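Example record

One chain of 354 residues, shown exactly as stored in the release files.
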Amino acid sequence: MSLQGALADFSVADLFQLLGLGQRTGCLKLEHETEQGEVYFKEGYIVAAKGSRQEAEDAVYHFFGWSTGRFVFENDKSPLRENMMIDWQNLILEAARRNDELSEVKKTIPDGNAILTLIDEGQSNIDAIKLNNDDLKVLSLINGKRTVDEVIAKSSMDNVEASKTLASLIKANLIDIRMTQEEHQRRLEEKLKKSGVDVEKNISMLTSIFKRKRKRKYEIVNSAAGLLIDAINRYLDVLLLDTPIIAVPMKEITDKFEELKMIYPDMEGVVYSNVTERFNSDQLDWDETTETPETVLKGLAEILEYIFELARQEAGEGPAVEKFREVRDDVVKDASKMDRPREAVLGIRFLPKK
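Predicted structure tokens for this chain:
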């Protein structure tokens, strides 16, 4: 009777060890989603392998990434052509090393379905970088439509080397990667769970976030308070929606907001909406012939500083500052279009600098 079962119960490495130690001869057939593969053993040695896109060792290393699917071992089956001869122990060690390298690469490229695009020459560092043949081969395959997996497959390179090349080009600011909405949401849910948020109870909020445009359009405001509130909301947007996602704990932010309202009573008209999870000044009662009270602006500036500090703790100084500066630039541009120049100047004066 042939050996068969599910990869969820018996890993590829376990199968190789079993067949190698038993010095078995035959064909191990594997199935994973829409892919199929075959690995031929001869007295415990691996002598041939083929998959949907790879052959020999490249195919075997690809199979090690399969954790679900089915397998069956057929005794005394021989390949039409032997394309390798390798000891199963060496192959498992090499596969483990390659998986470690891919784990590092996945920190830069988390989603194989993400679209790759070339960064404009004027914004890239291409003049300062020495590109080798592999770099050029990968760059030539990027057209703004192909996914990470498609580029790797078409490169004809070893899977690990192609992935490492892509990661280095992304880090060198030559390639941009656009994650799918599903990957954005998955990563956000993971971060929210780590922050203690009950994702199941807040699923409608998460869905509404991902229905928004990545860059929401903001109307030009007419007060210094509105300018700072826009800065707060914009910063929350880029933290949650840009790549990588920075999940700041909203409960801590709203607690800080309530604390500041006690310190600055003039802020009573600034409200936080649990529906949109954003701040607004719809209930702020001010006379448009006078300046916005500085106590309101001090409180709003402190909220913005507090959100920045949470982002810095979550993602580090660099990402928090980069996103903040992006928001500040947008807010300053909007301030230049305001009908009330004095309010624009006042708002910018209280807008934190990073």
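Notes: Residues 210-215 have pLDDT under 50 and may be disordered.
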